[in-house]
Amino acid sequence: QGAAIGGATGAGGEAPKLLMSQGRDGLLYPDAVLNDEQVAQHWFIKFARNKATLTDQIILKSEFHYYKALHSLGIETIAQDGLALEEATKPSLWMKRFDREISEHGVERFAVESIYSLAGVTVPGSYMNHLEVIQLLARLWIQAGQIDQVPALVSDYLRRDLLNKILGNSDNHGRNTSIIRGTNSFRLAPIYDLAPMVMDDEGVTRTTKWPKDLEVAGEVKWREVCNALKVIADPETLYEALREDAARLSALPDILTASGLPDTTMNHPSIALRNLEQRLKSWGLK
């Protein structure tokens, strides 16, 4: 840390991050230093935020376990191949970049755009409305001729917010969800920046919320949320899909315990893992 790296840009946020390229010689280089044909892999390396206190390190370690758990449930997230938590004096989380893919034809770069960018928001940390974000995404999908994919898009979006609520990821600003642009298509980027930020000593709160009548004192009225989306997708279909997702996600406590999630995270009062079945019932999802 403290490295001055030219070209290692584009990785914003509070936690120190590095974009690195692994050469075919096995060494690591600052991003954009090597020619494409010299690159074997592109890495996104993340360190503990703030002063790297014990809590900051637990948050980083928990993020690692969250990605592993999502993968085991078949939910698209950070690639498991190469995913590693290096627990040195200053722990680091190593992740393969999802905006790059290396094949025999060279390096393919994917156009990733955040929700902030899509909405024309230029001020970091700006508040957003989930309904407006979904409407924005649905319009894009329809314009691209993907109207038949809109219900699945909305269900995916709802599942992501349910995950945030279960896992205590309060850092849900418009940079932490993105789309990937194809030649003539759009898709949501894999889930990233998924960490128990409710544990952060600085008090990170949700900046993207449902309207006030749908999210009261931090509690989301999931059935009413589905009803509010009736102009975009069938509310009953959305609600049943969300209940199915909730049933699948109910395995998270067991998966994360077996994985080695820190007890501090598992038992945190603002994280729903400790009493997930009860919480899902109170949310009307069981």
Automatic annotation (TrEMBL):
InterPro entries: HipA-like_C, HipA_Ser/Thr_kinase. GO terms for cellular component: cytosol. GO terms for molecular function: protein serine/threonine kinase activity. Keywords: Kinase, Transferase. Residues 11-238 form the HipA-like C-terminal domain. Pfam families: HipA_C (PF07804). The keyword Kinase applies. The keyword Transmembrane helix does not apply. It comes from the Bacteria. Belongs to the HipA Ser/Thr kinase family. This is Toxin HipA.
